């Protein structure tokens, strides 16, 4: 018995998973996806601002990206977002992940997930894509100026960033699933709760 406990060590993945109501699991996924939306929009807003200021300062001046905003409620960015809207989005983007990611990780940890943070991170990255694309499709057109590599990346961020977020999210899901399955296979030979683990594989 002592040798068996020493073999298990302190790895939390060998502890029996606790019961988590399906509604709580669903709520965690919905919260992660909803919290990621304003993050994606805010990221798109910041990317557009840096893109225009860095590539076409004259246009940035005309759009008041570089000037003092006289009316914070007037349309300023794409989708007719005002300066106030942008500040609200930035505030929401800074607060939402602080609530959704810990909650999502806690739910996965209760289910016996060996890497409880990976799935919430993946959902958050994928959830940012719609918000980013929604604003990026209404960015001001900068034409085809001659720019270096960094300028090219900034200019084509409307598709490069969503692609990077999507690939990053899928890689996190792939890594999470591999780790989860490997842990379950080890548990089958080491853990007295293996049968319970197999019946409660995280989904």
Describe this protein with a few key phrases.
203 residues, mainly alpha, 0% strand
Describe the structure.
The chain is built from 8 helices and no strands. With 203 residues, it is mostly helical. The protein has one domain. Helix 2 runs antiparallel to helix 4, helix 4 (83-110) packs antiparallel against helix 5 and helix 5 (118-136) packs antiparallel against helix 7 (157-190). The longest helix has 34 residues, at 22-55. The protein is elongated and about 65 Å long. 32% of the residues are buried. Residues 1-15 have low confidence and may be disordered.
Give me a quick take on this structure.
This protein has 203 residues and is an all-alpha fold. The protein has helices spanning 2-8, 22-55, 57-62, 83-110, 118-136, 149-155, 157-190, 194-199.
Residues in helices, as a percent range: 55-70%
Order of helices and strands: HHHHHHHH
Q: What's the rounded overall pLDDT mean?
A: 85
* Rg, Å, rounded: 22 Å
Largest sheet: none
DSSP strand content:
under 5%
Total number of domains: 1
Q: What is the tally of beta strands? A: 0
């Amino acid at each position: 018995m002592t040798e068996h406990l020493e073999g298990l060590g302190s790895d939390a993945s060998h502890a029996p998973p606790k019961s988590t109501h399906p509604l709580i699991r669903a709520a965690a996924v919905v919260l992660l996806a909803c919290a990621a939306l304003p993050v994606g929009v805010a990221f798109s807003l910041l990317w557009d601002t840096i893109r225009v200021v860095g590539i076409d300062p004259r246009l940035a001046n005309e759009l008041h990206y570089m000037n003092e905003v006289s009316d914070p409620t007037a349309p300023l960015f794409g989708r007719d977002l005002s300066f106030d809207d942008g500040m609200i989005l930035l505030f929401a983007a800074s607060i939402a992940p602080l609530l959704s990611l810990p909650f999502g990780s806690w739910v996965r940890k209760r289910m016996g997930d060996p890497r409880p943070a990976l799935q919430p991170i993946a959902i958050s990255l994928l959830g940012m894509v719609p918000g980013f694309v929604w604003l990026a499709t209404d960015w001001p057109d900068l034409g085809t100026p001659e720019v270096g590599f960094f300028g090219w990346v900034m200019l084509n961020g409307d598709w490069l960033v969503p692609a990077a977020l999507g690939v990053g999210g899928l890689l996190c899901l792939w890594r999470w699933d591999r780790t989860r399955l490997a842990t379950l296979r080890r548990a089958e030979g080491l853990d007295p709760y293996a049968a319970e683990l197999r019946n409660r594989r995280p989904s």
